[in-house]
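User: I'm curious whether this sequence folds into something compact or stays loose and floppy. Could you predict its structure so I can see for myself?
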Amino acid sequence: MPTNLTMSQKELERLKTLTRIKSGELTISNAAESLSLSERHMYRILKRYSDEGDVGIIHRARGTQSNNRLPKTIHDQVLKLYKEKYSDFGPTFFSEKLEFDHDIIVSRQTLTRWLRKKGLLLSLRKKRPHRKKRPRRDAIGSLVQFDGSHHDWFEGRGPVCCLLCAVDDASGQIFLQFAEAEDTKSVLSFWKKYIQLFGIPAQIYTDFHTIYYNEAEHLTQYERALKTLNIEPIYAHSPQAKGRVERGNRTHQDRLIKSLRLKNISTIQDANNYLLEEYNAHHNKRFSNSDSLQNIHRPSDGIDLDAIFCFETKRTVYNDYTIMLNSQYIQLLKSDAPLPPPKSKIIVRLYLDNSLHILWNNNELKYEIFNNKPKPKKLVLTRRKPSPNHPWRKLKRGLSVKQNKSSTKLELVT
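Assistant: Here's the prediction. I'll summarize afterward.
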């Protein structure tokens, strides 16, 4: 035991109480009550103080190593792995990778202490301004927050792309999908896949991007699809309003990027396969809470999602039974379904697989596409040779036409 003793405040209080017992100011029973100890333990401390003096009050484990301390070999191995492979990982994510990939169990608090002691973990989260927290919804599928995050997800190994992210407001469950950009086709494809997997939510929360909202009061393709499925769109006036999906983007820009690096994934297709097969489920198991919540997603059985999540427009039929679409003429053809009369409005749908469907009165019409406007058929006039006894021949034999400048006379030829 060292000669220079450092006592805690608790030990100093015990020393003062023992001194009062020695002087007769306190009985052992009252002293034990004042220190919230049992009378038996008070006798034990008093005996140790009588035998060893002030040193006897200090805890016996002071200055010794904890029985739960990890071996130095584990400590060195963990620091080596961090320097070689996980140098930009946070303590929590690093702790998970050690457990699942290396069978080393170290708490994040211990990792934080080790890394800071070696000067390997210097960054601290910045304090953010306080905002009132909106309470979560009570059921899964009541509200889904949605956003796109453009980022260099492959760290130069592949093209810069966009991560489309949906977060359930009640449970925190996520569904992620990569796309080349946050455009209408990618968004429609995302929600078609979401509804196939989970069902139809009640509300979707997005920002005021032109994909989702049009100030001219015309329905966007996104709004039309949601209206068909009776989904209410909600628009956020600030990033903080849909803070759960915004914070989720920051989380994925840390954890997902590093996971893609470890898997050596550099294409959108491979990344989407990894999200469906592993990342989404692991993230939901780790961070979401859906055990005691009711799921109010509506089933999509019997609904033609291809005909909803598509590009839909209306066109007018011309007199020659053609329509104009994307600078191309489309000729409507006869089929079992009746042709619409000229100047009728028909529905044209371009599916996500680029197939074209034209409908009138819920009947699909056959068509043919032309690059230029089809030309009308010319009437061909054929000269028919008169018969030998045609009256015209008799007239030609019996009459001679003499034409002067002033007049024309018919004379009989003999």
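Summary: The radius of gyration is 42 Å. The mean pLDDT is 85.
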